[in-house]
UniProtKB/TrEMBL annotation:
One of its GO terms (biological process) is tetrahydrobiopterin biosynthetic process. Its EC number is 4.2.1.96. InterPro entries: PCD_sf (IPR036428), Pterin_deHydtase (IPR001533). It catalyses: (4aS,6R)-4a-hydroxy-L-erythro-5,6,7,8-tetrahydrobiopterin = (6R)-L-erythro-6,7-dihydrobiopterin + H2O. HAMAP family: Pterin_4_alpha. GO terms for molecular function: 4-alpha-hydroxytetrahydrobiopterin dehydratase activity. Pfam families: Pterin_4a. This is 4a-hydroxytetrahydrobiopterin dehydratase. Keywords: Lyase.
Length: 139
């Protein structure tokens, strides 16, 4: 590809994606949420949906939540649903499963912290958990 064609392709791609993405060598890198975006999107997850701030994460800031289901089968069905969404989004959670409990951590490694992808994934996870009969923790 000619250098000018490559440059033009990068400019078009970056322009279409808006200010939340930065372009490097033709690749799109996610950007961390701004303070106003955090207040509008992350704070409700913390206040209303039982997510918590993850202390020191190697990739920057992160959120976490534990989910308790009726049994292992339901927990595994929930994980399969989340895995399908993660594959479509190309955004994979850090998680662990022991019997009926699933622990999930969300962060965007290449953004150095939370991004819009984490918020979208957390919202999807909340809905999927409700569909699978998650036991809500006490506030």
């Amino acid at each position: 590809m000619a250098p000018i064609t490559r440059w033009l392709l990068v400019q078009v791609k970056c322009g279409l994606l808006g200010r939340r993405a930065a372009c490097f060598s033709g690749k799109v890198k996610m950007m961390p949420l701004s303070m106003s975006e955090r207040e509008a999107t992350v704070e409700p997850l913390l206040r209303e949906h039982f997510w918590e701030k993850y202390g020191e994460h190697p990739s920057g800031d992160a959120i976490k939540r534990s989910f308790i289901f009726k049994n292992f089968d339901v927990a595994f069905e929930f994980m399969q649903k989340v895995a399908t969404k993660a594959k479509l989004m190309n955004h994979h959670p850090e998680w662990s499963n022991v019997y009926n409990k699933v622990d999930i951590v969300l962060t965007t490694h290449d953004a150095g912290g939370l991004s819009k992808k984490d918020v979208e994934m957390a919202q999807f996870i909340n809905e999927a958990a409700l569909q699978h009969g998650v036991k809500q923790p006490n506030k």
